[in-house]
Design brief:
The complex is a heterotrimer. By secondary structure, chain A is an all-alpha fold. Helix content of chain A is 74%, strand content 3%. Chain A has a domain at 3-114 and 135-215. Chain A is built from eleven helices and two strands, in the order H-H-H-H-E-E-H-H-H-H-H-H-H. Chain A has a two-stranded antiparallel sheet. In chain A, helix 5 (136-158) packs across helix 6 (160-170). Chain B is α/β, with parallel strands linked by helices. Chain B has helices at residues 2-22, 47-66, 90-102, 115-128, 157-171, 186-201, 220-229, 240-252, 269-275, 304-315, 321-340, 345-353, and strands spanning 33-40, 70-72, 75-85, 108-110, 132-134, 150-152, 177-183, 205-212, 233-237, 259-263, 282-285, 356-359, 362-365, 379-383, 386-391. The longest helix of chain B is centred in the N-terminal third of the chain and has 21 residues, at 2-22. Chain C contains 16 helices and two strands. A two-stranded antiparallel ribbon of chain C has the order 1-2. Chain C is globular. Classes of the chains: A mainly alpha, B alpha/beta, C mainly alpha. At the B-C interface, helix 1, helix 3, helix 4 and helix 6 of B face helix 1, helix 3, helix 6 and helix 14 of C.
């Protein structure tokens, strides 16, 4: 069996995975909040993209920007109203709070959207490069995912907001002393996290059927990727995502598809114990 | 210190009050009403299927009550469904089953979609000796606990796979190698296992035989391996979202098998809608399809066509086997009650065991383990915009089309 | 927070009444009521269990479902292999404790979020392992457990008393731990682990002890549950929802106290009963709403609200109102 095909599968999948995780990683790294809503945000983005395609005939690539923006607003709101109040609270509190909020969002989606799997049918076909077959829509998805992560990286590095976010992540008190409005930065960061989730959802709608049953799986993957790659950094999410994609691909081939997911979790646990900061990451909060 | 314990006392009292409110006297058993209990998954992962059951029973009930009820032992009984949502949670399923039996005093219980939850509720029904009908559980393992009160209208999986292997060998003699890929979940797994066995005993070479974990979002590893094995026939099992994804990835990665079977994708509208053109040529076996033409049947409808007509008129879409099997289960129940002459649970149970009835859904005859005896299960295929029935010959309306 | 955490006499009194009421369920109500009582007892035992690691020690563990699930499976497999029921339960409890102790050595080195994630990952991992190990566990097919003999009423009562027995055991253990050096040590760890370490508290050993205690009763509950229900499968045994609900129950009642988990579990299960019986479609959202409400308005749980001060403040406001007029 062709190693390069398996590798290619893994990389394409990995880029998609990275897109899932980058927003999650940012929120966790900067706000020290684990956003259990992340999976639902992604699915919400997916549903909005699907509806735009189904009812308005808008192609997902075009729908991506407005969907992402909508999610940004939602994220900003959620953070401002709810999460801001508990940002410095212990882990159990923030985790349980975001979990509770997630239940509400999940319920709203299942009631109004129903769990029937929806698929944006694009039928782009495949590309054959030197014997390795890559599906067209996944390639586009991978391209978009990489583009978005690159954009985010540039924004973090280049813009003043980005630098403020990094400053808050490095040292909250110092940043406040420097005149940065920390609460506002928190809200913006959470909003960006939601934006990336929405964008990921739009990308995913092109490749997978969208259903509320998947929120847990997406969240689980985000966890694993963040631990593998490292928190709070875009390159970390990318490394983590691609690593997971390749690991799952090879594990699926060598051990049987049954165990692919298990291997991912096992890897995460091992890394948690051995190197919790991840392959790339800067030390996150304890 | 005193304050805290005092609060505990107050809270405890409030909770006691709530508890006593819940132990209010149970509903009185009513004469003149046949009460059917139905725990359904109306929310949660299996909500779509739960709603289908609810929809078809509502249709059935309207038809029955329009006739003034059912005639049992010389009296007219009204029929009533008592439904609860168990939220696709196993513990709740058991809890609600117990509530239906003790609080609502139902005469019989209908099982929900899903083998696992059916088993949990079956344990409750068996303990209380309440007859139970499962209209959407077909794995033999559901019926392997030796329960006397459990009956199922779906035929066992193994019958389906044997007739399928036989049919494909006949219509596609060049078939030699089959790849089996199943979801690791009660029903899909049993279908995959059954097919691998039937194929092997039918002389085919099983070149790939693996299971994928629940929640798999990417099948490329498996599909790449399948492609390398170059099968003539790919057989995949799972739920709708798995099959949609699987078929798509098969096309993406360039699988060129002439026969692709997805169980039970084509039986569901969501499958063909979700895949569009890619669904063309996909085969499946199923317990029933509305194109099957049973006539002179007993129960609420006297032919498949009549049922189909009513269903489409009420809901504007085609019924699938879930709808049919569940409506038929209700018919079977009424038939048993009529033969028993009363709603006495033991009598109804014995009457069910002796059932031999022709319904719009097909013949119903329960075997020793409570399952409907296997018969020739239809094989269907998506051809263009329609679902065609390929087998058995008596009701077939098209021939096998190979995928190129 | 630590000083006033002892259980007063009134507290014991109310607890006794509550337990007696639960035990009397077979007499007061029908089998459905007994089922609810069993559920309350189950969750009370698990909440008390969680309290050791989450309440006293302050480590946010989400492993409850893993311990429960393993308890279910070990109990079920033992029974199917011919082991007598009660022995199977004991076996399951011991196995889960050993498992937790071993696991604790590894993941208790993590803190905060990392620990939380590690503990959830354990649930997923155990579920996946159980799911894949078909030859032992039946995999996705689940496992049949030989049904308990007896009428539904007899079976229900028996299971109820056993569960209440586990609750008592957990409660007594809680009181003992509270008063022993272990309890003191765990509280020190909660406040400041490094300082505790420096002061001479054997943090590693204590944490492992707490984690093991948090597993032990869950394993027992799981084994008894499997025997009661007659059939288990991986998805329902290793339920993420369960693993989240238990900490929430303790948060509701008051973490770090002996009575808090009992109050929280009882209130939660009854609330849930009341809600999902009536609001079919929105039960998840309502549960989420309760959690949000809990976090914002009841940060210390029901036991920590100072009702007297609340009432005083209200009458004060009224008084001021009059003065202004």
């Amino acid at each position: 069996m062709d190693i390069s095909q398996i590798l290619a599968n893994g990389i394409v999948l990995g880029a998609l995975y990275a897109c899932i995780a980058v927003g999650f990683s940012l929120v966790w790294g900067v706000l020290n909040v684990i956003n259990m809503l992340h999976g639902s945000f992604i699915i919400l983005g997916g549903y909005l993209t699907y509806f735009a395609w189904f009812y308005l005939g808008v192609h997902p690539v075009i729908a991506l920007a407005p969907v992402a923006l909508l999610l940004y607003l939602l994220g900003f709101l959620v953070q401002y109203v709810f999460i801001n109040k508990v940002v410095t609270a212990p882990v159990l509190t923030t985790l349980t709070l975001t979990f509770g909020l997630d239940m509400i969002l999940y319920n709203l989606m299942t009631v109004y959207f129903t769990a029937t799997p929806r698929r944006v049918t694009l039928d782009i076909g495949s590309v054959d490069i030197a014997g390795v077959v890559m599906p067209g829509d996944r390639l586009i998805g991978m391209g978009l995912a990489l583009l978005l992560t690159a954009l985010l990286y540039l924004v973090m590095r280049g813009s003043s907001i980005g630098r403020a976010i990094v400053a808050v992540r490095m040292d909250r008190q110092a940043a406040a002393l420097m005149g940065i409005r920390v609460n506002r930065i928190y809200a913006i960061t959470f909003g960006i996290g939601a934006l990336m989730a929405g964008a990921a959802g739009a990308v995913f709608a092109m490749v997978f059927p969208v259903t509320t049953n998947l929120t847990g799986s997406f969240l689980g993957k985000a966890f694993v990727i963040c631990v593998i790659g490292g928190l709070g950094s875009v390159p970390g999410a990318l490394v983590g995502g691609i690593t997971l994609g390749i690991v799952e691909s090879f594990a699926g081939y060598l051990l049987g598809p049954q165990h692919a997911i298990t291997i991912g979790f096992l890897l995460m646990l091992i890394l948690l114990v051995v190197r919790p900061t991840g392959l790339v990451g800067v030390k996150g909060y304890e | 210190m005193f304050t805290r314990s005092w609060k505990f006392a107050v809270a405890g009292a409030a909770v006691l009050g709530a508890a006593s409110a819940l132990t209010a006297p149970a509903a009185q058993a009513e004469d003149g009403v046949l009460k059917i209990g139905a725990p359904l998954a109306l929310t949660g992962g299996l909500a779509d299927e739960g709603k289908k059951q609810q929809a078809v029973w509502s249709l059935w009930l309207d038809k029955i009550n329009a006739q003034g009820g059912v005639e049992v032992g010389g009296k007219k009984l009204k029929v009533e469904f008592v439904e609860y949502d168990y939220q696709t949670d196993g513990k709740r399923a058991g809890q609600l089953a117990e509530k239906l039996v003790t609080d609502d005093e139902v005469d019989v219980i209908m099982a929900p979609f899903g083998s696992g939850h059916t088993k949990i509720i079956a344990a409750v029904a068996e303990r209380y000796q309440v007859p139970m009908l499962a209209c959407v559980a077909s794995s033999v393992s559901v019926y392997d606990q030796g329960f006397k009160y459990l009956f199922g209208t779906l035929a066992p999986n193994t019958g389906m796979t044997e007739s399928m292997v036989g049919y494909f060998k006949e219509k596609f003699p060049a078939v030699k190698k089959v790849a089996v890929y199943g979801r690791d979940d009660v029903f899909p797994k049993s279908m995959a296992t059954a097919l691998a066995d039937s194929a092997a005993s039918g002389g085919l070479e099983v070149v790939y035989n693996e299971l994928y974990a629940v929640g798999t979002m990417d099948h490329s590893a498996a599909i790449s391996a399948i492609k390398a094995a170059n099968p003539d026939w790919v057989y995949m099992t799972g739920y709708t979202q798995d099959l949609i994804l699987g078929r798509k990835q098969m096309a993406d990665l360039g699988i060129t098998a002439p026969v692709i079977t997805m169980v039970t994708g084509p039986a569901y509208r969501e499958f063909t809608e979700g895949l569009g053109d890619l669904a063309d040529g996909v085969t499946s076996s199923t317990w029933w399809h509305h194109a099957t033409a049973y006539t002179d049947t007993s129960g609420a409808w006297n032919s498949t066509a009549a049922f189909y007509k009513d269903f489409v008129a009420a809901y504007g879409s085609d019924p699938d086997y879930v709808h049919a099997s569940c409506a038929a289960a209700a018919d079977v129940l009424v038939d048993a009650v009529q033969r028993a002459g009363s709603t006495d649970k033991q009598a109804v149970r014995d009457a069910l065991a002796a059932t031999d009835m022709a319904t719009f859904y097909g013949p119903i005859d329960f075997g020793d383990n409570g399952m409907n005896q296997g018969r020739e299960m239809p094989i269907i295929q998506v051809q263009g915009d329609e679902i065609k029935v390929l087998y058995p010959a008596a009701i077939a309306d098209a021939d096998l089309k190979l995928i190129d | 927070m630590m000083a006033g955490s002892r259980t007063g006499k009134v507290g014991y009194g109310v607890l006794a009444v509550w337990l007696l009421l639960l035990a009397a369920a077979p007499l007061l109500g029908d089998n459905y009521t007994v089922r609810i009582a069993i559920t309350i007892a189950m969750f009370t035992a698990m909440a008390l269990s969680w309290n050791f690691i989450g309440g006293f020690t302050g480590y946010p563990s989400f492993s409850t479902a893993a311990f429960f699930g393993i308890g279910c499976y070990v109990g079920a497999i033992a029974q199917r292999s011919g082991v007598p029921m009660v022995l199977a339960w004991v076996l399951a409890t011991v196995f889960v404790s050993l498992f937790a102790a071993a696991l604790g050595c590894i993941i208790l080195r993590l803190k905060g979020h990392y620990f939380a994630i590690g503990s959830i990952a354990i649930v997923e991992l155990t579920r996946l392992v159980v799911s894949s190990w078909g030859s032992l566990t039946g995999g996705g097919d689940g496992l049949n457990v030989p049904l308990l003999r007896g009428t539904p009423g007899e079976v229900g009562s028996m299971v109820l008393y056993i569960m209440l027995g586990i609750v008592l055991a957990a409660f007594v253990t809680t009181i003992l731990v509270e008063r022993a050096r272990l309890g003191f040590g765990l509280r020190c760890i909660h406040q400041n682990e490094e300082a505790a370490d420096m002061v001479g508290v054997d943090t590693t050993r204590y944490k492992i002890a707490a984690y093991t205690l948090s597993a032990l009763f869950c394993g027992a509950v799981g084994a008894v549950y499997a025997s009661w229900v007659g059939y288990i499968d991986p998805t329902d045994s290793f339920s993420i929802l369960l693993t989240i609900k238990v900490p929430v129950m303790v948060l509701l009642g008051g973490p770090g106290t002996a009575l808090g988990p009992i109050l929280g579990a009882g209130a939660f299960v009854l609330l849930e009963e009341f809600f999902w019986a009536n609001f079919l479609q929105w039960n998840r959202a309502i549960l989420g709403g309760i959690i949000v409400f809990l976090i914002f308005f009841l940060p210390g749980g029901l036991l920590k609200i100072d009702y007297r001060r609340l009432l005083r403040r209200q009458s004060q406001a009224r008084g001021e109102g009059k003065a202004v007029l």
